[in-house]
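Researcher: Structure prediction, please.
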Amino acid sequence: MQNSILKTRLKRLATPIFIETLLVMMLGAVDTFMLSRYSDNSVAAVGVVNQLVNLAFLIFQVIGLGTSVLCAQYLGGREDKKVVQVVGISLVVNTIIGLFISFILFSFNHSFLKLMGLRPEIIGDGIDYMRIVGSFAFLQAISMTLSAALRSANKAFYPMLVTLIVNIINIIGNYALIFGELGMPRLGVEGAAISTSFCRGVSVALLFFFLFRKFIPRFPISYFRPFPFPELKNLFKIGMPSAAEQISYSLSQVVITFFINLISNEALIARTYCVNIVMFSYLLAIAIGQGGAIVIGHLIGEHKPHAAFILGKYGVKTAVIFTVSFSILLAASGSYLFPLLTSNPEIIYLGIIILWVDVILEIGRAINIFMVNSLRSTGDIYYPAIIGVIVMWGVSVGASYLFGIQFGWGLIGMWVAFTLDENIRGVLFMKRWYSLKWTKKGFV
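Model: Predicted structure follows.
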């Protein structure tokens, strides 16, 4: 009986999160795929810029991750006042951080892209895209905080609905502004950036509407007098090591992108296409991981660690089965997908092989996505961060240079290195879950 109840709770959260995550990924993929009709160079430029912008977004997750974990555990422990305090503090802090990051991205876009080694024929498009998207990065900081709060309260339907609306607007905006349709000017890369930034503004407005209507109707001043410094401390205590693992991953990918630049433009373009294709294979793992983390956080708040352990075993098995199945389907479809994106035979050849290598990679990735989310939600925040930093840089970056550059295996060799990295971390995180050391790490 308990197992079926846990599975039901997970499915109720994971389903809307799955749809929302699909739509969020579509938001980025739509820019890539629509720009592929414009030029391959624009795709490469936007791919590199998105790596830098996504790295900045991970800084916002310092607060977003803390919000999610604390709200889940406090809601499980029925500490409603602390929930309001956490959400209020998170919104203020992430907005300030977001404005600062936006200023940095706008002011130093050319310097960042030169550091990435973008070639002259690509860097112009990159600057155009980064100048606009970077200026409005603070909207993503606010959006991430609002989404985390709503999800933790079992209201994942509303972020999903917002993302659906935003996707529709973005597709129309891209069509109009990239290609100069519907009476709009033909702006290419700049058009994609304008559309994406406008959509982030719409997302923030709608999420605030649902937060006030469905979760927290107001933030009483009395809740913040005296200022709840313990909650601010806990936000950073959870968020900083948790975000460090993701920031480390993105930084490692920036370094790897620099290595790929040393190979060829074709390798960089193929990598951009592959990243946007394979992300659909681990989409359900993200949803199960985020939904599982919320339920496990509630169970820890309710002092039910055994139930959390059982849910963790079920969730990781489900994530692996679905992820690997989808990755095999994508690999089998590679010879049909890539000719739709490009006519360059070298890019098509690289992409098809990489999709098959990626099947093995996705086993480890599915485990990592679920286990890292689950360990964080219990309060076990340092182990995933430490293991992540050590293995990512030691294996993913080190072996990428060795296989891809030194051995001359190129992009395919780098993907083999990524596969080793994901699966080594997967084994270590599974051992941590079965050790049950996380049962004494809660905040409630």
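Model: The mean pLDDT is 86.
Researcher: Thanks, that helps.
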